Every structure is written in structure tokens, then in C-alpha cells.
Amino acid sequence: MIDSKKLDPNFKFEVAKEMGSDGITRCFACGTCTAGCPVRDIDEKYNPRKIIRMVILGMREEVLTSDYIWLCSTCYTCYDRCPQGVHLTSIMMAL
């Protein structure tokens, strides 16, 4: 359950200020990043799309305390396949 009182509407803007992360708000949650992710092949609980959605929603604490933000292998497959050009690898490094 998401507690709206704990959401930080500025979190996505803070992340977007980091180099290469400015496209985060272009994400429309198509799932291409997750479908092509090699880490997802190893751990089906890893979901880059979910992490991006959580950032956009302002779930700062949940994102920054998640072990999953550390699993990105920086292979750039998500970026190569993203129809919106969201540089997910840079966003994961910013987090």
C-alpha cells in the first residue's frame, strides 16, 4: 500500500538533475527495460520499470533503501531498447 503522505513529489526532479537522468519523466512504463534486462533473467524480482515508477511517484525512502538499485549491471540494454530514450542506466547510477 502506498501512503500518499510519505510521497516526495520533488524526488523525480532531484534524480533528473543528475547527469543523464533528465529523461526520467518521459518513461511511460512500457516494460521494455524489464523485458530485455539480463539481471531480470537471473532474478525475476528485479524490475527496472517498477523502480522508475517508484521514483516518479516520489517513493524516496522505498527506492533508496531497496537492494534492487544496486543490481543494475550497466549493460545499457534498457537504454538501447527504450522507445522514449530514457537513460535508465544513468538513473540507476544516480540512485
Keyword list:
Fumarate Reductase Iron-sulfur Protein, Chain B, domain 2, 95 residues, single chain, mainly alpha, globular
Topology (SSEs and partners):
Blueprint: H1 11-16, H2 32-35, H3 38-42, H4 48-57, H5 60-64, H6 77-81, H7 88-94
What helical percentage do the residues reach?
Answer: 40-55%
CATH architecture classification: Orthogonal Bundle
Q: Number of helix segments?
A: 7
Average pLDDT confidence is 94
Main pleated-sheet profile: none
Instruction: Estimate nothing, just give the exact number of structural domains.
Output: 1
Under CATH, the topology can be stated as Fumarate Reductase Iron-sulfur Protein, Chain B, domain 2
Number of strands: 0
The radius of gyration is 12 Å
Oligomer: single chain
Top CATH class: Mainly Alpha
Q: What is the rounded distance between the termini?
A: 22 Å
What is the approximate shape?
globular
In the CATH hierarchy, what is the superfamily?
A: Alpha-helical ferredoxin
**Which sequence of SSEs, written as H and E, runs from N to C?**
HHHHHHH
**Poorly predicted sequence stretches spanning 5 or more consecutive residues:** none
Beta percentage is: under 5%
- Overall structural class, as computed from helix and strand content, comes to mainly alpha
